[in-house]
Amino acid sequence: MNVLFLCTGNSCRSLMGEAIFNHMAPAGWHAISAGSRPIGRLNEGAVAILEEKGISTAGYFSKSWNDLPVTPDIVISVCANAANETCPAYLGPALRAHWGVDDPAHAEGSPEQIKAAFETAYGIVRYRIERFLDLPLNELKNDPERFKTELDRIGALLP
């Protein structure tokens, strides 16, 4: 099963989703990420926090949802409304859920405050992915209505 983590710029939160999911996913499950208007580079803060946590970002890059290497089975949007973001809506045939996460790339303040924003975003994304992977995936992939209900529930959870 292919899971797409989707946001606008594909440089930070969706990258975290892709990298964390692939780091933890069981065989047969794979994540990709994309943006509706990719900025063309990965956010340095996102890359730093992932590497600090022992999660490789090798081979990842900012890409458009028009250039996906596979068709996703599940699409999880990770944009938030805090910075007046327009959350892209994937229109292809896929199970869709929204897991809003504030964008740490827009954090302001001291270096410690900015790092804390990345830690918070990482913590939320990782926690939700852990809950996703705790689900009975083999059962749910054949029950899309129940799967969507579970993904929506997870999208409201905070660590």
**Major sheet characteristics:** 4 strands, parallel
Strand/helix succession: EHEHEEHHH
Approximate helicity band: 25-40%
Number of contiguous helices: 5
CATH topology-level name: Rossmann fold
Query: Unreliable stretches, pLDDT < 50, 5 or more residues?
Result: none
CATH architecture group name: 3-Layer(aba) Sandwich
Strand order of the largest sheet: 2-1-3-4
Q: Please, what is the average pLDDT?
A: 93
What characteristic shape results from the CA principal axes? globular
CATH class: Alpha Beta
How many strand elements? 4
Beta content:
5-15%
- Span from first to last CA? 26 Å
- What's the domain count? 1
CATH superfamily: Response regulator
Radius of gyration using CA atoms only:
15 Å
- Structural class per helix/strand content? alpha/beta
Short descriptors:
159 residues; Rossmann fold; 13% strand; alpha/beta; 38% helix
Written overview of the protein:
With 159 residues, the protein is an alpha/beta fold. The protein has a single domain (2-154), classed as Rossmann fold. The chain has 5 helices and 4 strands; from the N terminus they run βαβαββααα. The protein has helices spanning 13-24, 44-52, 111-134, 137-140, 144-154; strands at residues 2-7, 30-35, 74-77, 95-98. Strand 1, helix 1 (13-24) and strand 2 (30-35) form a beta-alpha-beta unit. Helix 1 (13-24) packs across helix 3 (111-134). The longest helix is centred in the last third of the chain and has 24 residues, at 111-134. It is globular, with a radius of gyration of 15 Å. It starts with a strand and ends in a 5-residue tail after the last helix. Keywords: Arsenical resistance.
